[in-house]
Amino acid sequence: MTELLLHERQNIIRKRLADEGRVIAADLAQEFRISEDTIRRDLREMAAAGLCKRVYGGALPATDDGGNTLLKRLSDKPERKDALAKATVALFKPEMTLFIDAGTTNLAIAQAIPAGLPLTVITNAPTIAASLMDHAAVDVVVIGGKLDRQSGAVLGAKAIQDAGSFRPDLCVLGSCGLDIDNGVTASFFEEAEFKRFIALQSRQVIAAVTNEKLGMPTPFSVIPLAKVGPVIIEHDADADIVNTIAAIGVELIRAPAA
């Protein structure tokens, strides 16, 4: 592709964000045959204008102040989250004690627990607890504290204190981003702090990750990938990212096509 004018590049980037849910600076630089510094400058300008959200290595679509709330995310690609949920609940065994973290993919996982499968589910997400109220075989334990409305999670010192009483067999960790260098990441500090604590309390940690979060870290590190496994990914997850993660020995499970 020959070099394009600034506004032409940015229009292409905006369309790519709308179509694919993310852009990678290195890929854009190669496609446009310009330097990564130029692409990063484009992304900074677009972010300043409210046209995208900068993240390490690239950008995500812009959201308004209330645009990334839990209620909005509930309606985002439900069929893909259902496919991830189906692959994840296959890992649950009778009489397990699970921690299911907040998040819309994890809500789909809770809703996919088969009827009659006896489990104890600990959660810091009121929506997940509510979804299991009529599941007669599942005992539900709700962690207390202050609710963060954007994440849909109970966070803070009281939540961490409550979580210290548990040693889950399996932690279904919510991920705001996941990549080889930063591991599982979260969008803000208190969220990362709680996730890290409960992950370290658990005997095994797994994560189900939608395509837009794979290879796209968010600002706060939770745990390295070496402490997570398996990672459940979508059937059409980016092959280069998947191969890089698999190369360091992380077990990956592909969900069925939605």
Name the structural class: alpha/beta
How many β-strand stretches? 15
Measured on Cα atoms, how large is the radius of gyration? 19 Å
How are the strands of the largest sheet arranged?
6-5-4-9-12-14-15
Helix content: 25-40%
By oligomeric state, this entry counts as single chain
List SSEs in N-to-C order. Answer: HEHHEEHHEHEHEEEHEEEHEEEHE
How many domains? The number is 2
How much of the polypeptide forms β-strand, as a percent range?
A: 15-25%
Based on the structure given, which CATH architecture of the largest domain is correct? 3-Layer(aba) Sandwich
**Model regions low in confidence, pLDDT < 50 over at least 5 residues:** 64-68
Whole-number average pLDDT?
88
What name is given to the CATH topology of the largest domain?
A: Rossmann fold
Number of helices: 10
Can you summarize the main beta sheet?
7 strands, parallel
Task: Tell me the overall shape.
Answer: elongated
Can you walk through the features of this model?
It contains ten helices and 15 strands. It starts with 5 loop residues before the first helix and ends with a strand. Helix 10 (239-247) links the parallel strand 14 (231-233) and strand 15 (252-254). The strands form four sheets. It has a seven-stranded parallel sheet with strand order 6-5-4-9-12-14-15, with helices on both faces. A three-stranded antiparallel sheet has the order 1-3-2. Residues 64-68 have low confidence and may be disordered. Helices cover 37% and strands 21% of the residues. It folds into two domains: 6-61, Orthogonal Bundle (Arc Repressor Mutant, subunit A), CATH 1.10.10.10; 71-254, Rossmann fold, CATH 3.40.50.1360. With 258 residues, it is α/β, with parallel strands linked by helices.
